[in-house]
C-alpha cells in the first residue's frame, strides 16, 4: 500500500498531470468565485476534454478544479451575501456581516485556512477509510437514510435565529416545495397543473439565488452604498492574518467541522447542499461563550468552510469503493471513471490503487495550493467591498440569471428565481429566516422517498426498532435538546451587541415588521391550505407527506398569526388607521423601492423570454446603470457590451449552454 | 433490352450515389450538431453518448463538431417533448435518448412527443439481466427462486419504467411470488439497499452491470447474475444473449422450462414479447420531422459506420466491458413501426399492469 501512496504522489507531480492540476486549480478558483456556477458546472465543462487523457491527468484536472471551488466560493458569500456555490450558503450568515463591518479580509483569511485544513482532513480520512469502509456503508439502509434526513431537518431549529416557530414554518414551505414534480415512488406528478416544468422538483440553485441574492442586490441598489458599511480607512481588525489566527485559535471547531463534512459526504443523498448548514448548526449548538452567531461571528465562517472542503474527500469514499455516488458531482466523476475504463470497487483498491492515491494527492495539493493562491490575491479581492454597490449589481445580476438558468435551462428557472426573490425580500424585511427553506428543500424529497420505501419494505414503521435507526433516533433527541437549551440561552442574551453597526447589518431573521409579517403568514397559510386540498387527489402513498406537512404548517401559522396580530395591533395604535399603519410599515421596510426593483427583475425575465437572455441581460445592465446608477450612457453601454461578450464567450461558446429561443423570432416567423 | 434497362438503372444509381454522399458531406462540413441527452451528466445514457460522440463526429461525412447538451427533466420527457415539438429541423440538433415507447403507448402524464412523426437514425440494443441475492435461492439453483432464506424483494425505479415492467413480467411468467418496491432511483439508493439485504433483486442492463454494479454487488456483495431476458425474434421465438450464455446465465424461457417442464405461455408471456419488441432499442438517435435528407443521410452514415470502427469499438469495450451491439437504420425503423402495431387490449393490459405496480 505504501508503494501505491508513493506512486500516486509521483504520478500527480509528473508532467502533464501537474500541468492539468495547475489548470484545474486555476479554473476552480475562478468558477467557484462566480455565483451560481461552481464545481458541478466545471465538471460538466471539463468532462468532454478528458476522454483522450490518461486517468491521472484527467482526474488531476477534474478533481483539482472540483476540490477548490468550495474554497473560492467563499468570496461571493462573504463579499456579496450571495452563496458562491450551494456548499457555501451558511457562510453568508456571518461572513457577510463581517464584510459589512469592513472585515472581509479576516473572514476570507479564516475561510481559506479552514478550507485548506478541511480539504486535507477529507483527503486523509479518505486514505485511511478505504480498507474499512464496507461495514460502515452496509450498516446504512433506507430507514437510516430517513432518520439521517430527519436529523438534518432538526437543524432547522438552530438556523432559525430568534424565531423557531417561523423557522419551522419556512422549513415546512421548503418541504412542500420539494413535493412538486414526479419524484414519487410511482412517478406520479404532484402539483403539475399541466406545466412541463412542474414535473421536476424546483432546482436548488434558482431557489438559493432568488432567495438570497435578490434581497441583497436590492440592498446595494437602494441604499446606494458599498458592501462595507464602514469606509476603507476606518475598518479595523480585519486583516487576512487575523483570519488565519482565528482559524488556528478555533482548531477544535475546524476539526469537528471537517469530520462532520467527511461523514456527510460519505452518506449518499446528503451531499454538498447540506454540509455547510449542518456544520453551522453544529457550531451554534456546541460553541460556548458569547453568542454572536448571525451577527459577524468568525466561528460561523470557520465551521461551514472546514466542512464543505472536507466533504469532497468524504464523497469520494463510497464513489471509489462501491460506485455509490453521494451526490450529483460524484455521478459525473463516476461517469468520467467509466469512460476512462476505471471500475469502482475492488479494482480501485487493488490493481488501480495508485490511481486512487493519485486522486487523494490531487485533493491535498489542490486544497493547499488554492488557499495560498487566494490568500495572495485576497487583499485585491477584498477591496471590492468598498466599491460602489451600483457597479456590482449588474455583474451579479448576470451571474444570478445565468446561474439560475443552468438548473433546467428553462424559462421556469428564471420565473422561479424571480418568485423566490420576491418572497425572499418579504421574508428578510419581516424577520422570517430563510435558511430552513433550503435545508428542507434538499432533505425533504430524500426523507419522503426513504420513508415510503422503508414502509413498503418493512411495513409501516416496521423498521423503527433497527439498531442503527435507534442510534440516530437518540442523536435526534439530543440535537433537539441541545437546540432547546441554546434557545433558552439566546433568549437570556440580548439580540443586539454594543456594536454600533447592528442596525445597518444584514442579520438573518432579525428585522421586525409585524404588518408585513402577518401578510406573509397569510400568504403561506393560503399556500398550505391549497396544497393540502390538492393533495387529497393524489395516490394514497403520495398524499400522506404533503398533507402532514400542510397540517403542521397550518398549525404553526395559526400560532404565528395570533402573535403577529397582537404585535400589529400594538403598531396600529400609533396611527390613525390600518391603511396609514400599513403605509408606514411598507416605508419602514423600504418596500416601495424593493417592489420597484423586483419589477425590474420581472421585466428582465420577460425580456429573456422575448428577446433571449443575452440581449435582455445586456439591456438590464444598460438601463440599470443609466437609471439607478446614474452613470453616463457611454459607460453603461461599454459595461453592457462587456456583459454581453462574457455571456457569448463563456456560457455560449465555451459551455455550449442552450439559450432561450427568443419568442420574438417566432412572432416574425424566424423559426423555433 | 432487360440488360440495357438494368445497366441504365445501375448507371443512374451509381451516378446518384456519389451525389448523395457528396451532398451529405457538404451538409455538415464546418457545422455543429447538438446531441440532446435527456438525463444529467454522469448517468448511463450520458456516459454512453459521451463515448459515442467523439467517434460519431469523426465518422459523419463532413466531420462536424458534435457536442452534448444535457436537457434533463421530467424523467426524460422534457427532451423528448422538445425533440418532437420544438427542436429545429435543420439538422443542427438530434435527440440521443432511451426509447420511451411505453410512455407514449400508455399515455404517461406529460408526454407530448410522438415517435411516429420523427425520423429515427439508429439505436443500440441493450442486454437485459438482473442481479439476485444468492440467499433468495437454494444452493445457487436459479430454479429455486423465492425458496431461499431471504424474501424476494424487487427494487424498482417506477412502475411505468421498461426495466421494471420486464422484471415483473419475467417473475409473473415464472409464477414466482415477490414483493415489488418502486422508488429506488439510481445506484446511490440501490447499492446500499442491496448490500444491506433490504432488497434482493435488481434489474439492469449488462453495461451497467459491468461498469458499476458487478464489483460492489457481486464481487464484494451477496449477489449473482440471475437471468437473461431474451430477445424475441420475428417468429415469436426467444433467443438467448451470447454474452450471458457464455457466463452460464440461463435465459428466462429456459428457467421456465426447468421449473415447469414446458415453454412459457399465457398473458404475461405475450406481454413480455410485446415489451421486448417495444424496447428492442435501448438507446436511440432521432431527428425531428422535416429534417433535410442530406442531414439524415450523413447522420445515418456516421451511425452505421460506428460498429465497424476500431477506435470506437475499443473505447466502448473499455467503458462498458462488452462489444458494440448497434441497431442500424433498418432495424430502428422496424422498431419505430412496431409501436403502431400494438393492439388496444395490450395497451390496456400495460396500463392496468402499471397501475397494479403502484398498489
Per-chain topology:
The complex is a heterodimer of chains A (672) and B (359).
Chain A: H1 2-12, H2 17-33, H3 38-46, H4 55-72, H5 74-80, H6 91-100, H7 104-129, H8 133-139, H9 142-154, H10 164-177, H11 204-223, H12 240-249, H13 251-266, H14 272-286, H15 299-322, H16 328-339, H17 346-349, H18 353-382, H19 389-405, H20 411-429, H21 435-458, H22 467-492, H23 514-535, H24 540-572, H25 578-588, H26 591-611, H27 613-627, H28 633-654, H29 663-667
Helix pairs in contact in A: 1-18, 2-3, 2-4, 2-18, 3-4, 3-16, 4-7, 4-15, 4-18, 5-6, 5-7, 6-7, 6-15, 7-12, 7-13, 7-15, 7-18, 9-21, 9-22, 10-21, 10-24, 11-19, 11-20, 11-26, 13-14, 13-15, 14-15, 15-16, 15-18, 19-20, 19-27, 20-26, 23-24, 26-27, 27-28
Chain B: H1 2-28, E1 32-37, H2 44-59, E2 65-70, H3 77-85, E3 93-98, H4 101-105, E4 119-124, E5 128-133, E6 153-156, H5 162-174, E7 179-182, H6 187-195, E8 201-205, H7 206-219, E9 223-229, E10 231-232, E11 238-239, H8 242-245, H9 252-260, H10 267-278, E12 283-287, H11 293-305, H12 310-320, E13 326-327, H13 329-338, H14 344-357
Parallel strand pairs in B: 1-2, 1-3, 6-7, 6-8
Antiparallel strand pairs in B: 3-12, 4-12, 4-13, 5-8, 5-9, 10-11
Helix pairs in contact in B: 1-11, 2-11, 2-12, 5-10, 6-7
Describe the structure.
The complex is a heterodimer of chains A (about 675) and B (about 350). Chain A is globular and about 80 Å long. Chain A has 29 helices and no strands. Chain A folds into two domains: about 1-225 and about 240-495, no CATH class; about 590-665, no CATH class. Chain A has helices at about 1-10, 15-35, 40-45, 55-70, 75-80, 90-100, 105-130, 135-140, 140-155, 165-175, 205-225, 240-250, 250-265, 270-285, 300-320, 330-340, 345-350, 355-380, 390-405, 410-430, 435-460, 465-490, 515-535, 540-570, 580-590, 590-610, 615-625, 635-655, 665. The longest helix of chain A is centred in the last third of the chain and has 33 residues, at about 540-570. By secondary structure, chain B is an alpha/beta fold. Chain B has two domains: about 20-125 and about 280-350, Bordetella uptake gene, domain 1 (D-Maltodextrin-Binding Protein, domain 2); about 130-275, Periplasmic binding protein-like II (D-Maltodextrin-Binding Protein, domain 2), CATH 3.40.190. In chain B, the strands form three sheets. A six-stranded mixed sheet of chain B has the order 2-1-3-12-4-13, with helices on both faces. In chain B, a hairpin with a 5-residue loop joins strand 10 (about 230) and strand 11 (about 240). Mean pLDDT of chain B is about 90; it is low at about 10-20. At the A-B interface, helix 8, helix 16 and helix 21 of A face helix 2, strand 2, helix 3, strand 7 and helix 6 of B.
Amino acid at each position: 500500500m505504501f508503494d501505491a501512496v508513493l506512486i500516486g504522489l509521483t504520478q500527480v507531480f509528473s508532467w502533464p498531470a501537474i500541468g492539468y492540476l495547475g489548470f484545474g486549480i486555476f479554473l476552480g478558483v475562478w468558477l467557484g468565485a462566480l455565483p451560481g456556477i461552481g464545481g458541478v458546472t466545471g465538471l460538466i465543462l471539463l468532462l468532454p476534454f478528458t476522454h483522450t487523457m490518461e486517468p491521472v491527468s484527467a482526474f488531476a484536472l477534474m478533481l483539482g478544479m472540483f476540490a477548490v471551488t468550495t474554497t473560492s466560493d467563499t468570496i461571493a458569500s462573504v463579499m456579496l451575501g450571495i452563496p458562491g456555490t450551494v456548499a457555501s450558503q451558511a457562510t453568508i450568515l456571518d461572513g457577510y456581516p463581517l464584510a459589512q463591518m469592513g472585515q472581509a479580509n479576516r473572514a476570507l483569511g479564516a475561510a481559506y485556512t479552514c478550507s485548506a485544513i478541511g480539504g486535507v482532513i477529507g483527503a486523509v480520512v479518505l486514505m485511511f477509510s478505504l480498507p474499512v469502509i464496507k461495514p460502515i456503508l452496509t450498516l446504512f439502509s433506507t430507514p437510516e437514510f430517513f432518520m439521517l434526513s430527519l436529523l438534518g431537518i432538526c437543524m432547522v431549529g438552530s438556523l432559525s435565529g430568534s424565531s423557531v416557530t417561523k423557522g419551522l414554518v419556512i422549513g415546512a414551505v421548503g418541504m412542500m416545495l420539494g413535493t412538486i414534480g414526479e419524484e414519487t415512488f410511482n412517478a406520479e406528478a404532484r402539483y403539475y397543473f399541466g406545466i412541463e416544468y412542474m414535473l421536476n422538483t424546483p432546482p436548488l440553485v434558482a431557489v438559493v439565488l432568488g432567495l438570497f441574492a435578490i434581497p441583497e442586490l436590492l440592498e446595494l441598489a437602494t441604499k446606494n452604498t458599498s458592501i462595507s458599511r464602514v469606509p476603507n480607512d476606518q475598518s479595523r481588525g480585519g486583516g487576512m492574518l487575523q483570519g488565519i489566527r482565528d482559524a488556528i485559535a478555533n482548531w477544535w471547531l475546524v476539526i469537528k467541522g471537517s469530520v462532520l463534512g467527511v461523514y456527510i459526504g460519505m452518506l449518499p443523498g446528503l451531499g454538498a447542499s447540506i454540509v455547510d448548514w449542518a456544520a453551522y448548526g453544529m457550531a451554534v449548538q456546541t460553541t460556548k461563550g458569547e453568542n454572536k452567531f448571525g451577527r459577524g461571528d468568525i466561528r460561523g465562517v470557520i465551521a461551514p468552510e472546514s466542512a464543505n472542503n472536507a466533504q469532497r474527500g468524504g464523497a469520494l469514499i463510497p464513489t471509489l469503493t462501491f460506485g455509490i455516488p453521494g451526490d450529483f458531482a460524484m455521478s459525473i466523476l463516476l461517469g468520467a471513471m467509466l469512460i476512462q475504463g476505471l471500475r469502482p470497487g475492488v479494482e480501485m483498491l487493488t490493481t488501480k490503487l495508485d490511481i486512487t492515491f493519485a486522486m487523494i494527492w490531487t485533493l491535498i495539493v489542490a486544497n493547499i495550493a488554492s488557499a495560498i493562491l487566494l490568500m495572495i490575491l485576497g487583499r485585491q479581492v477584498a477591496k471590492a467591498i468598498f466599491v460602489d454597490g451600483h457597479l456590482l449589481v449588474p455583474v451579479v445580476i448576470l451571474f444570478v440569471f445565468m446561474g439560475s438558468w443552468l438548473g433546467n435551462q428553462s424559462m421556469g428557472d428564471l420565473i422561479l428565481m424571480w418568485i423566490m426573490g420576491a418572497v425572499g425580500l418579504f421574508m428578510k424585511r419581516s424577520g422570517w429566516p430563510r435558511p430552513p427553506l433550503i435545508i428542507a428543500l434538499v432533505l425533504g424529497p430524500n426523507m419522503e422517498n426513504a420513508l415510503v420505501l422503508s414502509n413498503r419494505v418493512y411495513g409501516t414503521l416496521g423498521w423503527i426498532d433497527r439498531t442503527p435507526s435507534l442510534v440516530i433516533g437518540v442523536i435526534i433527541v439530543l440535537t433537539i435538546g441541545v437546540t432547546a437549551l441554546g434557545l433558552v440561552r439566546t433568549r437570556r442574551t440580548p439580540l443586539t451587541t454594543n456594536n454600533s453597526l447592528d442596525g445597518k447589518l444584514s442579520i438573518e431573521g432579525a428585522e421586525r415588521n409585524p404588518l408585513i409579517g402577518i401578510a406573509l403568514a397569510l400568504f403561506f397559510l393560503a399556500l398550505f391550505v391549497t396544497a393540502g386540498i390538492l393533495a387529497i387527489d393524489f395516490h394514497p402513498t403520495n398524499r400522506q407527506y404533503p398533507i402532514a406537512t400542510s397540517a403542521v404548517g397550518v398549525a404553526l401559522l395559526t400560532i404565528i398569526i395570533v402573535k403577529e396580530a397582537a404585535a400589529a395591533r400594538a403598531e396600529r395604535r400609533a396611527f390613525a388607521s390600518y391603511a396609514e399603519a400599513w403605509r408606514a410599515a411598507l416605508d419602514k421596510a423600504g418596500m416601495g423601492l424593493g417592489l420597484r426593483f423586483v419589477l425590474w427583475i420581472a421585466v428582465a425575465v420577460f425580456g429573456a423570454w422575448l428577446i433571449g437572455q443575452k440581449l435582455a441581460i445586456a439591456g438590464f445592465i444598460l438601463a440599470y446603470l443609466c437609471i439607478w446608477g446614474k452613470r453616463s450612457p457611454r459607460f453603461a453601454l461599454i459595461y453592457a457590451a462587456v456583459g454581453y461578450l462574457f455571456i457569448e464567450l463563456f456560457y455560449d461558446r465555451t459551455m455550449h449552454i442552450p439559450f432561450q429561443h427568443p419568442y420574438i423570432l417566432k412572432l416574425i416567423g424566424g423559426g423555433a | 433490352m432487360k440488360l440495357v434497362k438494368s445497366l441504365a438503372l445501375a448507371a443512374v444509381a451509381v451516378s446518384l450515389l456519389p451525389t448523395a454522399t457528396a451532398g451529405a458531406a457538404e451538409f455538415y462540413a464546418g457545422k455543429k450538431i447538438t446531441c440532446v441527452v435527456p438525463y444529467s451528466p454522469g448517468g448511463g445514457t450520458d456516459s454512453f453518448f459521451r463515448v459515442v460522440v467523439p467517434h460519431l463526429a469523426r465518422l459523419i461525412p463532413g466531420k462536424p463538431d458534435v457536442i452534448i447538451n444535457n436537457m434533463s427533466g421530467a424523467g426524460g420527457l422534457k427532451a423528448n417533448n422538445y425533440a418532437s415539438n420544438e427542436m429545429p429541423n435543420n439538422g443542427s440538433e438530434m435527440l440521443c435518448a432511451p426509447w420511451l415507447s411505453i410512455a407514449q403507448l400508455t399515455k404517461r402524464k406529460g408526454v407530448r412527443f410522438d415517435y411516429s412523426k420523427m425520423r429515427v437514425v439508429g439505436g443500440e440494443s441493450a442486454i437485459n439481466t438482473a442481479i439476485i441475492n444468492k440467499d433468495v435461492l437454494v444452493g445457487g439453483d436459479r430454479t429455486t427462486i423465492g425458496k431461499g432464506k431471504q424474501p424476494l424483494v424487487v427494487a424498482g425505479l417506477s412502475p411505468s419504467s421498461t426495466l421494471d415492467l420486464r422484471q415483473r413480467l419475467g417473475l409473473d411468467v415464472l409464477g414466482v411470488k415477490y414483493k415489488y418496491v418502486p422508488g429506488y432511483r439510481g445506484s446511490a439508493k440501490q447499492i446500499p439497499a442491496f448490500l444491506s439485504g433490504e432488497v434482493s433483486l435488481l434489474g439492469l442492463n449488462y453495461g451497467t452491470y459491468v461498469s458499476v454494479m458487478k464489483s460492489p454487488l457481486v464481487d464484494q456483495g451477496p449477489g449473482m447474475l440471475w437471468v437473461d431476458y431474451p430477445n424475441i425474434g420475428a417468429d415469436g421465438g426467444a433467443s438467448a444473449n451470447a454474452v450471458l450464455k457464455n457466463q452460464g446465465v440461463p435465459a428466462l424461457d429456459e428457467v421456465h422450462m426447468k421449473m415447469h417442464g414446458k415453454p412459457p405461455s399465457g398473458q404475461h408471456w405475450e406481454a413480455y414479447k410485446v415489451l421486448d419488441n417495444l424496447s428492442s432499442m435501448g438507446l436511440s438517435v432521432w431527428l425531428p420531422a422535416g429534417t433535410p435528407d442530406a442531414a439524415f443521410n450523413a447522420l445515418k452514415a456516421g451511425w452505421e459506420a460506428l460498429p465497424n470502427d476500431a477506435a470506437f469499438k475499443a473505447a466502448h469495450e473499455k467503458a462498458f466491458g462488452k462489444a458494440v451491439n448497434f441497431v442500424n437504420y433498418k432495424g430502428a425503423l422496424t422498431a419505430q413501426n412496431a409501436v403502431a402495431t400494438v393492439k388496444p387490449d395490450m395497451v390496456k393490459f400495460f396500463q392496468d399492469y402499471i397501475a397494479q405496480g403502484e398498489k
